[in-house]
Amino acid sequence: MDVAESVIGQTNKVKDELGEKCQKLFKDFLNEFTEDIESGKGKYAEEALNLVKPERNTLFVSFEDIQKFDQNLSTLLVEEFYRLYPFLCKALASYVKDELLKSRDEANSNMVLSVLKNKNFFVGLYNVPTQMKIRELKASKIGTLRRITGRISTFYFFNQPFILIIFNNISLLY
Length: 174
What we know:
Elements: H1 3-8, H2 17-32, H3 45-49, E1 58-62, H4 63-69, H5 71-79, H6 81-103, H7 106-116, E2 122-126, E3 131-133, E4 147-149, E5 164-167, E6 170-173
Parallel strand pairs: 1-2, 3-4
Antiparallel strand pairs: 5-6
């Protein structure tokens, strides 16, 4: 009897409740956040529908909009960004599929949905308020959401290639 065979069937998957909560909140944000109340359409709906195109896979979202919508969600993202980022991407994929089903006829949407099953979606955030200098960056900040600023003071060009030529055990280095 192999020990590995008996252990494989016994593993339990643990759900990340905080991640699932964040996923639901972010999907609600995409559905409900709008700057123009009269239109009734979400601010990011049109951009999300453009993610169907093969060359597009990232939706850029203003962090200030997330803060306006839900302060708890923005706090969670700042503190646990590395942990929660995959859940944001899943929420975006779900949102795109839902928007496609709303806006397209069934024959066309089935074709598009089959293509989207293999496509990865990503979320890009801008206007992040937590800014720090590169010299202040410490290991304790790993995994959190930060905007890093700095200045390049020295820049080196290294264009000289090394050429190594070997002729019958004689090496020449130029």
